[in-house]
Amino acid sequence: MLSAARRLGGAQASAMLGAALLALALPFVLRALGLDFYQSLASRIVVYAIAATSLNLVLGYGGLVSFGHAAFVGLGAYTTGILIAEGLQSGTLHLAATLVVTAAFALVIGGISLRTRGVYFIMITLAFAQMLFYFANSVKGYGGDEGLNVRARSLFSLGGWLLDLKNPLALYYVALAVLAVSLMALARFVPSRFGRAMLAIRDDDVRAEAIGFATYRYKLVMFVVAGMLGGVAGALSVNLQGYVSPNVLHWTQSGTLMVMVILGGVATVWGGLMGAAVLLLLQEVLGSHTEHGEFWTGWVLLAVVLFARRGLVGLMLGRPSKGAA
Amino acid sequence: MTELPLLVVDGLVKRFGGLLATDHVDLSVARGEIHALIGPNGAGKTTLVAQLGGQLASDAGRIVFAGHDITRMPTHRRARRGLVRSFQITRLFASASVLENAALAVQAATGSSLGAWRPVRRERALFEAARALLADVGLAERGDLAIGALSHGQRRALEVAMTLAGQPALVMLDEPMAGMGHEESARMERLVASLRGRCTVLLIEHDVDAVFRLADRVSVLVEGRIVATGKPDAVRADARVIAAYLGDSAETASA
Protein backbone atom coordinates (compact mmCIF):
# COMPACT_ATOMS: atom_id res chain seq x y z
CA MET A 1 0.00 0.00 0.00
CA LEU A 2 2.86 2.31 0.78
CA SER A 3 4.58 1.95 -2.56
CA ALA A 4 1.28 2.47 -4.33
CA ALA A 5 0.68 5.49 -2.14
CA ARG A 6 4.08 6.94 -2.90
CA ARG A 7 3.31 6.98 -6.59
CA LEU A 8 0.11 8.89 -6.05
CA GLY A 9 1.78 11.86 -4.44
CA GLY A 10 1.96 13.39 -0.99
CA ALA A 11 -1.55 14.62 -0.25
CA GLN A 12 -3.17 11.41 -1.35
CA ALA A 13 -0.58 9.29 0.40
CA SER A 14 -1.30 10.98 3.69
CA ALA A 15 -5.05 10.68 3.11
CA MET A 16 -4.64 6.96 2.54
CA LEU A 17 -2.37 6.52 5.51
CA GLY A 18 -4.92 8.39 7.59
CA ALA A 19 -7.73 6.15 6.34
CA ALA A 20 -5.67 3.04 7.09
CA LEU A 21 -4.87 4.19 10.62
CA LEU A 22 -8.48 5.15 11.22
CA ALA A 23 -9.61 1.72 10.04
CA LEU A 24 -7.10 0.01 12.32
CA ALA A 25 -7.98 2.10 15.36
CA LEU A 26 -11.72 2.20 14.74
CA PRO A 27 -12.78 -0.59 17.14
CA PHE A 28 -10.91 1.08 20.01
CA VAL A 29 -12.26 4.51 19.14
CA LEU A 30 -15.81 3.15 19.05
CA ARG A 31 -15.34 1.43 22.41
CA ALA A 32 -13.85 4.52 24.01
CA LEU A 33 -16.81 6.55 22.80
CA GLY A 34 -19.28 3.91 23.97
CA LEU A 35 -20.42 3.33 20.40
CA ASP A 36 -19.72 -0.42 20.28
CA PHE A 37 -23.03 -0.76 18.51
CA TYR A 38 -21.43 0.61 15.36
CA GLN A 39 -18.77 -2.09 15.27
CA SER A 40 -20.99 -4.40 13.23
CA LEU A 41 -21.75 -1.55 10.83
CA ALA A 42 -18.02 -1.01 10.38
CA SER A 43 -17.55 -4.72 9.64
CA ARG A 44 -20.47 -4.63 7.23
CA ILE A 45 -18.87 -1.72 5.37
CA VAL A 46 -15.59 -3.61 5.04
CA VAL A 47 -17.31 -6.79 3.81
CA TYR A 48 -19.41 -4.84 1.31
CA ALA A 49 -16.29 -2.95 0.25
CA ILE A 50 -14.66 -6.27 -0.67
CA ALA A 51 -17.74 -7.32 -2.64
CA ALA A 52 -17.99 -3.95 -4.41
CA THR A 53 -14.27 -3.99 -5.20
CA SER A 54 -14.65 -7.45 -6.72
CA LEU A 55 -17.51 -6.15 -8.89
CA ASN A 56 -15.36 -3.17 -9.88
CA LEU A 57 -12.87 -5.63 -11.40
CA VAL A 58 -15.52 -6.73 -13.88
CA LEU A 59 -17.63 -3.60 -14.20
CA GLY A 60 -14.89 -0.99 -14.00
CA TYR A 61 -11.65 -2.60 -15.12
CA GLY A 62 -13.27 -5.09 -17.46
CA GLY A 63 -15.89 -2.73 -18.84
CA LEU A 64 -18.37 -5.59 -18.48
CA VAL A 65 -21.74 -4.72 -16.97
CA SER A 66 -22.35 -7.86 -14.95
CA PHE A 67 -25.78 -7.73 -13.38
CA GLY A 68 -25.34 -11.00 -11.56
CA HIS A 69 -22.44 -10.43 -9.27
CA ALA A 70 -24.49 -11.22 -6.17
CA ALA A 71 -24.41 -14.82 -7.40
CA PHE A 72 -20.78 -15.13 -6.36
CA VAL A 73 -21.24 -13.39 -3.03
CA GLY A 74 -24.18 -15.71 -2.38
CA LEU A 75 -22.27 -18.79 -3.47
CA GLY A 76 -19.48 -17.95 -1.06
CA ALA A 77 -21.97 -17.32 1.74
CA TYR A 78 -23.86 -20.56 1.11
CA THR A 79 -20.71 -22.65 0.69
CA THR A 80 -19.36 -21.46 4.02
CA GLY A 81 -22.78 -21.50 5.69
CA ILE A 82 -23.53 -25.07 4.61
CA LEU A 83 -20.11 -26.31 5.75
CA ILE A 84 -20.67 -24.70 9.16
CA ALA A 85 -24.18 -26.16 9.34
CA GLU A 86 -22.65 -29.57 8.66
CA GLY A 87 -20.37 -29.11 11.65
CA LEU A 88 -17.21 -28.38 9.71
CA GLN A 89 -15.65 -25.36 11.34
CA SER A 90 -12.24 -25.14 9.69
CA GLY A 91 -11.85 -21.67 8.26
CA THR A 92 -9.18 -22.92 5.88
CA LEU A 93 -11.68 -25.43 4.52
CA HIS A 94 -14.34 -22.71 4.21
CA LEU A 95 -11.97 -20.47 2.31
CA ALA A 96 -10.72 -23.22 0.03
CA ALA A 97 -14.24 -24.48 -0.70
CA THR A 98 -15.49 -20.94 -1.34
CA LEU A 99 -12.67 -20.26 -3.78
CA VAL A 100 -13.14 -23.54 -5.62
CA VAL A 101 -16.93 -23.26 -5.86
CA THR A 102 -16.97 -19.62 -6.96
CA ALA A 103 -14.15 -20.18 -9.44
CA ALA A 104 -15.99 -23.11 -10.98
CA PHE A 105 -19.26 -21.18 -11.28
CA ALA A 106 -17.48 -18.09 -12.60
CA LEU A 107 -15.74 -20.22 -15.22
CA VAL A 108 -19.05 -21.59 -16.45
CA ILE A 109 -21.09 -18.38 -16.15
CA GLY A 110 -18.28 -16.22 -17.55
CA GLY A 111 -17.38 -18.79 -20.19
CA ILE A 112 -20.88 -18.56 -21.59
CA SER A 113 -21.83 -14.95 -20.96
CA LEU A 114 -18.54 -13.46 -22.19
CA ARG A 115 -19.35 -14.77 -25.65
CA THR A 116 -22.09 -12.17 -25.80
CA ARG A 117 -21.87 -8.42 -25.40
CA GLY A 118 -23.85 -5.37 -24.41
CA VAL A 119 -27.41 -5.92 -23.27
CA TYR A 120 -27.12 -9.67 -23.82
CA PHE A 121 -24.24 -9.89 -21.40
CA ILE A 122 -26.25 -7.98 -18.79
CA MET A 123 -29.24 -10.27 -19.29
CA ILE A 124 -27.30 -13.54 -19.23
CA THR A 125 -25.41 -12.69 -16.05
CA LEU A 126 -28.70 -11.62 -14.48
CA ALA A 127 -30.35 -14.86 -15.61
CA PHE A 128 -27.64 -17.02 -14.04
CA ALA A 129 -27.90 -15.16 -10.75
CA GLN A 130 -31.68 -15.46 -10.70
CA MET A 131 -31.39 -19.19 -11.42
CA LEU A 132 -29.23 -19.57 -8.34
CA PHE A 133 -31.66 -17.41 -6.35
CA TYR A 134 -34.59 -19.71 -7.17
CA PHE A 135 -32.45 -22.77 -6.60
CA ALA A 136 -31.49 -21.55 -3.10
CA ASN A 137 -35.17 -20.92 -2.39
CA SER A 138 -36.06 -24.47 -3.29
CA VAL A 139 -33.37 -26.31 -1.34
CA LYS A 140 -35.28 -27.11 1.85
CA GLY A 141 -32.39 -28.91 3.52
CA TYR A 142 -30.52 -25.64 4.01
CA GLY A 143 -33.29 -23.31 4.98
CA GLY A 144 -34.99 -22.82 1.65
CA ASP A 145 -36.66 -19.45 1.41
CA GLU A 146 -36.30 -18.87 5.14
CA GLY A 147 -32.54 -18.88 4.98
CA LEU A 148 -29.94 -20.74 6.94
CA ASN A 149 -28.95 -19.83 10.51
CA VAL A 150 -25.57 -20.93 11.77
CA ARG A 151 -24.39 -20.71 15.33
CA ALA A 152 -20.71 -21.40 14.86
CA ARG A 153 -18.27 -19.42 12.76
CA SER A 154 -15.13 -20.04 10.75
CA LEU A 155 -12.28 -21.11 12.94
CA PHE A 156 -8.70 -20.68 11.84
CA SER A 157 -5.87 -22.35 13.69
CA LEU A 158 -2.59 -20.62 13.09
CA GLY A 159 0.18 -22.69 14.61
CA GLY A 160 -1.63 -23.58 17.82
CA TRP A 161 -3.26 -20.16 18.01
CA LEU A 162 -7.00 -20.10 17.36
CA LEU A 163 -8.69 -17.33 15.47
CA ASP A 164 -12.47 -17.53 15.83
CA LEU A 165 -14.49 -15.22 13.60
CA LYS A 166 -17.23 -15.37 16.21
CA ASN A 167 -15.22 -12.64 17.90
CA PRO A 168 -16.42 -9.39 16.25
CA LEU A 169 -12.97 -7.85 16.40
CA ALA A 170 -11.33 -10.90 14.83
CA LEU A 171 -13.88 -10.75 12.03
CA TYR A 172 -13.35 -7.03 11.52
CA TYR A 173 -9.58 -7.32 11.29
CA VAL A 174 -9.65 -10.38 9.05
CA ALA A 175 -12.06 -8.59 6.69
CA LEU A 176 -9.89 -5.48 6.83
CA ALA A 177 -6.82 -7.51 5.95
CA VAL A 178 -8.62 -9.11 2.99
CA LEU A 179 -9.70 -5.67 1.81
CA ALA A 180 -6.22 -4.18 2.22
CA VAL A 181 -4.58 -7.02 0.31
CA SER A 182 -7.22 -6.73 -2.44
CA LEU A 183 -6.71 -2.98 -2.82
CA MET A 184 -2.94 -3.38 -2.83
CA ALA A 185 -3.13 -6.08 -5.48
CA LEU A 186 -5.52 -3.89 -7.48
CA ALA A 187 -3.14 -0.94 -7.31
CA ARG A 188 -0.37 -3.20 -8.64
CA PHE A 189 -2.65 -4.62 -11.32
CA VAL A 190 -3.71 -1.30 -12.89
CA PRO A 191 -0.32 -0.32 -14.40
CA SER A 192 0.76 -3.93 -15.03
CA ARG A 193 0.70 -5.74 -18.38
CA PHE A 194 -2.63 -7.31 -17.48
CA GLY A 195 -4.10 -4.03 -16.29
CA ARG A 196 -3.02 -2.22 -19.45
CA ALA A 197 -4.38 -5.02 -21.63
CA MET A 198 -7.72 -4.73 -19.83
CA LEU A 199 -7.71 -0.98 -20.46
CA ALA A 200 -7.21 -1.66 -24.16
CA ILE A 201 -10.00 -4.23 -24.14
CA ARG A 202 -12.30 -1.81 -22.35
CA ASP A 203 -11.55 0.97 -24.83
CA ASP A 204 -11.98 -1.14 -27.95
CA ASP A 205 -11.96 -4.91 -27.69
CA VAL A 206 -12.13 -5.47 -31.45
CA ARG A 207 -8.94 -3.51 -31.90
CA ALA A 208 -7.34 -5.15 -28.85
CA GLU A 209 -8.01 -8.58 -30.33
CA ALA A 210 -6.74 -7.47 -33.74
CA ILE A 211 -3.32 -6.49 -32.39
CA GLY A 212 -2.95 -9.81 -30.60
CA PHE A 213 -4.57 -9.62 -27.17
CA ALA A 214 -6.42 -12.81 -26.24
CA THR A 215 -9.41 -10.70 -25.20
CA TYR A 216 -11.78 -13.53 -24.32
CA ARG A 217 -9.27 -15.29 -22.12
CA TYR A 218 -8.27 -12.09 -20.30
CA LYS A 219 -11.87 -11.13 -19.68
CA LEU A 220 -12.56 -14.62 -18.38
CA VAL A 221 -9.61 -14.45 -15.99
CA MET A 222 -10.93 -11.11 -14.69
CA PHE A 223 -14.40 -12.56 -14.33
CA VAL A 224 -13.16 -15.58 -12.38
CA VAL A 225 -10.90 -13.57 -10.07
CA ALA A 226 -13.77 -11.17 -9.41
CA GLY A 227 -16.11 -14.07 -8.70
CA MET A 228 -13.66 -15.60 -6.24
CA LEU A 229 -13.16 -12.33 -4.38
CA GLY A 230 -16.93 -11.84 -4.30
CA GLY A 231 -17.18 -15.32 -2.79
CA VAL A 232 -14.73 -14.40 -0.05
CA ALA A 233 -16.93 -11.40 0.76
CA GLY A 234 -19.88 -13.78 0.99
CA ALA A 235 -17.99 -16.15 3.30
CA LEU A 236 -17.20 -13.19 5.54
CA SER A 237 -20.80 -11.98 5.48
CA VAL A 238 -22.13 -15.29 6.79
CA ASN A 239 -19.57 -15.05 9.57
CA LEU A 240 -20.70 -11.53 10.31
CA GLN A 241 -24.42 -12.22 10.36
CA GLY A 242 -24.59 -15.90 11.29
CA TYR A 243 -27.20 -16.12 8.63
CA VAL A 244 -27.52 -16.56 4.89
CA SER A 245 -30.72 -16.37 2.90
CA PRO A 246 -31.57 -16.52 -0.79
CA ASN A 247 -31.85 -12.73 -0.67
CA VAL A 248 -28.06 -12.43 -0.92
CA LEU A 249 -28.45 -13.92 -4.41
CA HIS A 250 -31.29 -11.65 -5.44
CA TRP A 251 -30.77 -9.25 -8.33
CA THR A 252 -31.37 -6.27 -6.06
CA GLN A 253 -28.16 -7.27 -4.25
CA SER A 254 -26.31 -7.12 -7.57
CA GLY A 255 -27.94 -3.73 -8.04
CA THR A 256 -26.76 -2.52 -4.63
CA LEU A 257 -23.19 -3.55 -5.46
CA MET A 258 -23.43 -1.72 -8.79
CA VAL A 259 -24.70 1.40 -7.03
CA MET A 260 -21.72 1.22 -4.67
CA VAL A 261 -19.24 0.93 -7.53
CA ILE A 262 -20.81 3.76 -9.52
CA LEU A 263 -21.13 5.95 -6.45
CA GLY A 264 -17.57 5.31 -5.33
CA GLY A 265 -15.91 5.37 -8.73
CA VAL A 266 -15.91 2.97 -11.66
CA ALA A 267 -12.41 1.69 -12.43
CA THR A 268 -10.80 3.36 -9.45
CA VAL A 269 -8.86 1.41 -6.83
CA TRP A 270 -10.76 2.99 -3.93
CA GLY A 271 -14.16 3.14 -5.62
CA GLY A 272 -15.57 -0.02 -4.04
CA LEU A 273 -14.59 0.98 -0.52
CA MET A 274 -15.77 4.54 -0.97
CA GLY A 275 -19.09 3.47 -2.43
CA ALA A 276 -19.76 0.84 0.23
CA ALA A 277 -18.89 3.24 3.05
CA VAL A 278 -20.93 6.15 1.72
CA LEU A 279 -23.99 4.11 0.77
CA LEU A 280 -24.17 2.15 4.02
CA LEU A 281 -23.55 5.25 6.13
CA LEU A 282 -26.20 7.14 4.18
CA GLN A 283 -28.68 4.35 4.75
CA GLU A 284 -27.81 4.29 8.43
CA VAL A 285 -28.12 8.04 8.91
CA LEU A 286 -31.12 8.60 6.65
CA GLY A 287 -32.79 5.44 7.83
CA SER A 288 -32.73 6.57 11.43
CA HIS A 289 -33.83 10.15 10.72
CA THR A 290 -36.41 9.81 7.97
CA GLU A 291 -38.72 7.19 6.63
CA HIS A 292 -37.59 7.91 3.10
CA GLY A 293 -33.94 6.90 3.26
CA GLU A 294 -33.96 5.22 -0.13
CA PHE A 295 -35.49 8.32 -1.68
CA TRP A 296 -32.69 10.60 -0.51
CA THR A 297 -30.06 8.01 -1.36
CA GLY A 298 -31.44 8.09 -4.87
CA TRP A 299 -30.85 11.85 -5.08
CA VAL A 300 -27.26 11.45 -3.95
CA LEU A 301 -26.66 8.78 -6.56
CA LEU A 302 -28.23 10.93 -9.24
CA ALA A 303 -26.01 13.87 -8.32
CA VAL A 304 -22.89 11.70 -8.42
CA VAL A 305 -23.75 10.20 -11.80
CA LEU A 306 -24.50 13.63 -13.24
CA PHE A 307 -21.62 15.60 -11.78
CA ALA A 308 -18.85 13.11 -11.02
CA ARG A 309 -18.39 10.61 -13.78
CA ARG A 310 -15.74 8.69 -11.95
CA GLY A 311 -17.68 8.71 -8.74
CA LEU A 312 -16.67 10.21 -5.43
CA VAL A 313 -13.10 8.98 -5.78
CA GLY A 314 -12.84 10.69 -9.17
CA LEU A 315 -14.28 13.83 -7.64
CA MET A 316 -11.65 13.81 -4.90
CA LEU A 317 -8.75 13.08 -7.25
CA GLY A 318 -9.88 15.92 -9.49
CA ARG A 319 -8.39 14.66 -12.72
CA PRO A 320 -10.55 12.36 -14.82
CA SER A 321 -8.32 9.38 -15.49
CA LYS A 322 -5.77 9.42 -12.71
CA GLY A 323 -6.74 5.95 -11.59
CA ALA A 324 -6.20 4.50 -15.03
CA ALA A 325 -2.89 6.20 -15.69
CA MET B 1 6.11 -18.77 -59.01
CA THR B 2 9.13 -20.31 -57.33
CA GLU B 3 8.17 -19.53 -53.75
CA LEU B 4 4.88 -20.44 -52.13
CA PRO B 5 2.61 -17.44 -51.71
CA LEU B 6 2.40 -16.00 -48.18
CA LEU B 7 -1.38 -15.91 -48.23
CA VAL B 8 -3.63 -18.22 -50.20
CA VAL B 9 -7.36 -17.73 -50.14
CA ASP B 10 -9.28 -20.61 -51.66
CA GLY B 11 -13.00 -20.50 -52.46
CA LEU B 12 -13.83 -18.24 -49.53
CA VAL B 13 -17.53 -17.60 -48.91
CA LYS B 14 -19.49 -15.31 -46.59
CA ARG B 15 -23.27 -15.17 -46.60
CA PHE B 16 -25.43 -12.62 -44.83
CA GLY B 17 -28.86 -14.21 -45.05
CA GLY B 18 -29.55 -14.45 -48.76
CA LEU B 19 -26.74 -12.10 -49.72
CA LEU B 20 -23.53 -13.65 -50.96
CA ALA B 21 -21.10 -10.99 -49.71
CA THR B 22 -17.98 -13.00 -50.47
CA ASP B 23 -18.55 -15.24 -53.45
CA HIS B 24 -15.91 -18.00 -53.68
CA VAL B 25 -12.94 -15.68 -53.58
CA ASP B 26 -9.56 -17.01 -54.69
CA LEU B 27 -6.63 -14.79 -53.94
CA SER B 28 -2.92 -15.22 -53.45
CA VAL B 29 -0.50 -12.72 -52.06
CA ALA B 30 3.18 -13.30 -52.71
CA ARG B 31 5.80 -12.72 -50.05
CA GLY B 32 7.19 -9.19 -50.18
CA GLU B 33 4.70 -7.66 -52.58
CA ILE B 34 2.33 -4.78 -52.14
CA HIS B 35 -0.90 -6.28 -53.29
CA ALA B 36 -3.84 -3.96 -53.71
CA LEU B 37 -7.44 -4.98 -53.43
CA ILE B 38 -9.76 -2.52 -55.11
CA GLY B 39 -13.42 -2.51 -55.92
CA PRO B 40 -16.43 -0.22 -55.98
CA ASN B 41 -18.36 0.58 -52.84
CA GLY B 42 -20.28 -2.41 -51.61
CA ALA B 43 -18.07 -4.87 -53.48
CA GLY B 44 -17.33 -6.70 -50.22
CA LYS B 45 -13.78 -5.51 -49.54
CA THR B 46 -14.34 -4.87 -45.87
CA THR B 47 -16.17 -8.19 -45.45
CA LEU B 48 -13.27 -10.03 -47.07
CA VAL B 49 -10.71 -8.29 -44.87
CA ALA B 50 -12.76 -9.12 -41.79
CA GLN B 51 -12.76 -12.77 -42.84
CA LEU B 52 -9.01 -12.72 -43.37
CA GLY B 53 -8.49 -10.93 -40.06
CA GLY B 54 -10.82 -13.27 -38.20
CA GLN B 55 -13.44 -10.73 -37.16
CA LEU B 56 -15.95 -12.61 -39.32
CA ALA B 57 -16.24 -16.38 -39.58
CA SER B 58 -16.26 -17.78 -43.10
CA ASP B 59 -19.06 -20.04 -44.35
CA ALA B 60 -16.89 -22.01 -46.74
CA GLY B 61 -13.41 -22.05 -48.23
CA ARG B 62 -9.93 -21.90 -46.80
CA ILE B 63 -7.39 -19.31 -45.75
CA VAL B 64 -3.82 -20.52 -45.71
CA PHE B 65 -1.22 -18.19 -44.22
CA ALA B 66 2.49 -19.03 -44.29
CA GLY B 67 1.62 -22.66 -44.92
CA HIS B 68 -0.91 -22.99 -42.08
CA ASP B 69 -4.66 -23.25 -42.42
CA ILE B 70 -5.95 -20.35 -40.32
CA THR B 71 -9.57 -20.43 -41.49
CA ARG B 72 -10.90 -21.02 -37.99
CA MET B 73 -8.11 -19.47 -35.98
CA PRO B 74 -9.14 -16.68 -33.57
CA THR B 75 -8.06 -13.17 -34.46
CA HIS B 76 -5.43 -12.70 -31.77
CA ARG B 77 -3.63 -15.88 -32.80
CA ARG B 78 -3.58 -14.76 -36.41
CA ALA B 79 -2.06 -11.50 -35.25
CA ARG B 80 0.55 -13.32 -33.20
CA ARG B 81 1.41 -15.41 -36.26
CA GLY B 82 2.04 -12.26 -38.24
CA LEU B 83 -1.22 -11.45 -39.99
CA VAL B 84 -2.37 -8.06 -38.73
CA ARG B 85 -4.93 -5.59 -40.04
CA SER B 86 -5.84 -1.98 -39.62
CA PHE B 87 -9.38 -0.69 -39.67
CA GLN B 88 -11.22 1.56 -42.06
CA ILE B 89 -12.69 3.48 -39.13
CA THR B 90 -9.97 4.68 -36.80
CA ARG B 91 -9.93 2.45 -33.75
CA LEU B 92 -7.46 3.58 -31.14
CA PHE B 93 -7.37 3.32 -27.36
CA ALA B 94 -8.85 6.65 -26.40
CA SER B 95 -7.86 6.66 -22.74
CA ALA B 96 -4.18 6.06 -23.49
CA SER B 97 -1.64 8.49 -24.94
CA VAL B 98 -0.10 8.13 -28.40
CA LEU B 99 3.00 6.43 -27.00
CA GLU B 100 0.90 4.20 -24.76
CA ASN B 101 -1.14 3.11 -27.77
CA ALA B 102 2.03 2.07 -29.54
CA ALA B 103 3.27 0.41 -26.34
CA LEU B 104 0.03 -1.55 -26.07
CA ALA B 105 0.53 -2.78 -29.61
CA VAL B 106 4.07 -3.91 -28.77
CA GLN B 107 2.80 -5.54 -25.58
CA ALA B 108 0.03 -7.35 -27.47
CA ALA B 109 2.55 -8.69 -29.94
CA THR B 110 5.10 -9.84 -27.36
CA GLY B 111 4.60 -12.31 -24.56
CA SER B 112 1.69 -12.97 -22.25
CA SER B 113 -0.29 -10.14 -20.73
CA LEU B 114 -1.42 -11.98 -17.62
CA GLY B 115 1.33 -10.48 -15.47
CA ALA B 116 -0.45 -8.38 -12.87
CA TRP B 117 2.32 -7.26 -10.56
CA ARG B 118 5.11 -5.45 -12.42
CA PRO B 119 4.32 -2.03 -13.92
CA VAL B 120 4.65 -2.01 -17.71
CA ARG B 121 6.38 1.37 -17.40
CA ARG B 122 9.49 -0.42 -16.17
CA GLU B 123 9.77 -2.44 -19.38
CA ARG B 124 12.36 -0.32 -21.15
CA ALA B 125 12.60 -2.48 -24.24
CA LEU B 126 8.86 -2.31 -24.76
CA PHE B 127 8.80 1.48 -24.74
CA GLU B 128 11.91 1.71 -26.90
CA ALA B 129 10.15 -0.43 -29.47
CA ALA B 130 7.06 1.75 -29.17
CA ARG B 131 9.11 4.92 -29.72
CA ALA B 132 10.78 3.36 -32.73
CA LEU B 133 7.35 2.59 -34.17
CA LEU B 134 6.24 6.18 -33.73
CA ALA B 135 9.43 7.40 -35.37
CA ASP B 136 8.78 5.11 -38.35
CA VAL B 137 5.49 6.85 -39.07
CA GLY B 138 6.58 10.39 -38.26
CA LEU B 139 4.99 10.65 -34.84
CA ALA B 140 8.19 10.67 -32.78
CA GLU B 141 7.39 14.10 -31.35
CA ARG B 142 3.76 13.28 -30.57
CA GLY B 143 4.14 10.47 -28.06
CA ASP B 144 2.81 12.38 -25.07
CA LEU B 145 -0.31 13.66 -26.77
CA ALA B 146 -3.77 12.32 -26.16
CA ILE B 147 -5.36 10.55 -29.11
CA GLY B 148 -7.89 13.37 -29.35
CA ALA B 149 -5.11 15.88 -30.00
CA LEU B 150 -3.96 14.13 -33.20
CA SER B 151 -5.09 15.14 -36.66
CA HIS B 152 -6.96 12.62 -38.76
CA GLY B 153 -3.86 11.85 -40.79
CA GLN B 154 -1.77 11.36 -37.68
CA ARG B 155 -4.33 8.97 -36.24
CA ARG B 156 -4.26 6.93 -39.42
CA ALA B 157 -0.46 6.88 -39.26
CA LEU B 158 -0.65 5.64 -35.66
CA GLU B 159 -3.05 2.92 -36.80
CA VAL B 160 -0.45 1.74 -39.30
CA ALA B 161 2.30 1.93 -36.68
CA MET B 162 0.29 -0.28 -34.36
CA THR B 163 -0.11 -2.98 -36.99
CA LEU B 164 3.67 -3.07 -37.39
CA ALA B 165 4.43 -3.68 -33.73
CA GLY B 166 5.10 -7.40 -33.90
CA GLN B 167 7.11 -7.29 -37.14
CA PRO B 168 4.21 -8.98 -38.94
CA ALA B 169 4.71 -10.89 -42.16
CA LEU B 170 1.53 -9.49 -43.69
CA VAL B 171 -0.21 -6.22 -42.97
CA MET B 172 -3.71 -5.59 -44.27
CA LEU B 173 -4.46 -1.89 -44.48
CA ASP B 174 -8.15 -1.15 -44.83
CA GLU B 175 -8.48 2.14 -46.75
CA PRO B 176 -5.66 3.95 -44.94
CA MET B 177 -6.26 7.07 -47.05
CA ALA B 178 -10.01 7.28 -46.46
CA GLY B 179 -11.19 10.78 -45.59
CA MET B 180 -7.75 12.35 -46.12
CA GLY B 181 -6.80 15.60 -47.79
CA HIS B 182 -4.25 15.79 -50.58
CA GLU B 183 -1.20 16.32 -48.44
CA GLU B 184 -2.16 13.72 -45.86
CA SER B 185 -2.84 11.19 -48.62
CA ALA B 186 0.57 11.80 -50.10
CA ARG B 187 2.18 11.29 -46.72
CA MET B 188 0.28 8.03 -46.19
CA GLU B 189 1.29 6.91 -49.67
CA ARG B 190 4.95 7.42 -48.77
CA LEU B 191 4.40 5.53 -45.53
CA VAL B 192 2.86 2.54 -47.31
CA ALA B 193 5.64 2.61 -49.90
CA SER B 194 8.18 2.55 -47.07
CA LEU B 195 6.79 -0.79 -45.94
CA ARG B 196 8.17 -2.47 -49.05
CA GLY B 197 10.95 -4.79 -47.99
CA ARG B 198 9.74 -4.70 -44.41
CA CYS B 199 6.57 -6.72 -44.76
CA THR B 200 4.04 -7.88 -47.29
CA VAL B 201 1.11 -5.53 -47.69
CA LEU B 202 -2.48 -6.18 -48.69
CA LEU B 203 -3.75 -2.70 -49.40
CA ILE B 204 -7.48 -2.18 -49.58
CA GLU B 205 -8.01 1.19 -51.12
CA HIS B 206 -10.58 3.29 -52.81
CA ASP B 207 -8.11 5.82 -54.24
CA VAL B 208 -7.16 4.04 -57.48
CA ASP B 209 -4.48 6.52 -58.48
CA ALA B 210 -2.48 5.82 -55.35
CA VAL B 211 -3.05 2.08 -55.82
CA PHE B 212 -1.64 2.04 -59.30
CA ARG B 213 1.44 3.91 -58.16
CA LEU B 214 2.05 1.69 -55.14
CA ALA B 215 0.99 -1.83 -55.97
CA ASP B 216 3.00 -4.65 -57.52
CA ARG B 217 -0.21 -6.48 -58.25
CA VAL B 218 -3.85 -5.51 -58.11
CA SER B 219 -6.93 -7.64 -57.53
CA VAL B 220 -10.34 -6.28 -58.36
CA LEU B 221 -13.34 -7.29 -56.29
CA VAL B 222 -16.80 -6.77 -57.75
CA GLU B 223 -19.96 -8.02 -56.07
CA GLY B 224 -18.00 -10.37 -53.85
CA ARG B 225 -15.98 -11.90 -56.69
CA ILE B 226 -12.42 -11.34 -57.85
CA VAL B 227 -12.84 -10.35 -61.49
CA ALA B 228 -9.20 -9.65 -62.28
CA THR B 229 -5.73 -9.99 -60.78
CA GLY B 230 -2.47 -8.85 -62.28
CA LYS B 231 0.07 -6.10 -62.80
CA PRO B 232 -1.43 -2.63 -62.51
CA ASP B 233 -1.14 -1.93 -66.22
CA ALA B 234 -2.80 -5.19 -67.19
CA VAL B 235 -5.61 -4.65 -64.71
CA ARG B 236 -6.11 -1.10 -65.84
CA ALA B 237 -6.59 -2.37 -69.38
CA ASP B 238 -8.93 -5.22 -68.46
CA ALA B 239 -12.32 -4.71 -70.06
CA ARG B 240 -14.24 -6.26 -67.15
CA VAL B 241 -12.50 -3.99 -64.69
CA ILE B 242 -13.20 -0.90 -66.74
CA ALA B 243 -16.83 -1.88 -67.06
CA ALA B 244 -17.32 -2.73 -63.42
CA TYR B 245 -15.24 -0.19 -61.66
CA LEU B 246 -12.66 2.04 -63.25
CA GLY B 247 -14.93 3.87 -65.64
CA ASP B 248 -17.27 4.73 -62.85
CA SER B 249 -14.51 5.69 -60.45
CA ALA B 250 -12.54 7.68 -63.03
CA GLU B 251 -15.58 9.85 -63.46
CA THR B 252 -15.91 10.53 -59.76
CA ALA B 253 -12.17 11.05 -59.45
CA SER B 254 -12.10 13.68 -62.19
CA ALA B 255 -15.29 15.33 -61.00
Please explain how this structure is put together:
- The complex is a heterodimer of chains A (325) and B (255).
- Chain A has 325 residues and is mostly helical.
- Chain A has 14 helices and four strands.
- Chain A has helices spanning 2-7, 10-32, 39-61, 70-85, 91-113, 119-138, 168-189, 193-203, 205-210, 215-241, 251-264, 271-289, 293-307, 311-317; strands spanning 148-149, 155-158, 161-164, 243-244.
- A two-stranded antiparallel sheet of chain A has the order 1-4. A two-stranded antiparallel sheet of chain A has the order 2-3.
- In chain A, a hairpin with a 2-residue loop joins strand 2 (155-158) and strand 3.
- The longest helix of chain A is centred in the last third of the chain and has 27 residues, at 215-241.
- With 255 residues, chain B is α/β, with parallel strands linked by helices.
- Chain B has a domain at 95-166.
- Chain B is 37% helix and 23% strand.
- Chain B contains nine helices and ten strands.
- Chain B has helices at 45-53, 75-81, 98-109, 124-136, 152-163, 182-194, 208-214, 232-237, 239-254; strands spanning 7-16, 19-29, 34-38, 60-65, 68-69, 83-85, 170-174, 200-204, 217-222, 225-230.
- In chain B, helix 3 (98-109) packs across helix 4 (124-136) and helix 3 (98-109) runs parallel beside helix 5.
- Chains A and B meet through helix 7, helix 8, helix 9 and helix 10 of A and helix 2 and helix 3 of B.
The major beta sheet of chain A can be summarized as: 2 strands, antiparallel
- First-last Cα distance of chain A: 17 Å
Could you state the oligomeric state of the chains shown? heterodimer
In whole angstroms, the N-to-C terminal distance of chain B is 40 Å
Give the helix level of chain B as a range of percent: 25-40%
Rg from alpha-carbon coordinates of chain B: 18 Å
Largest interface, C-beta closer than 8 angstroms, per-chain residues: A-B, 30 and 39 residues
Could you tell me the radius of gyration of chain A in angstroms?
19 Å
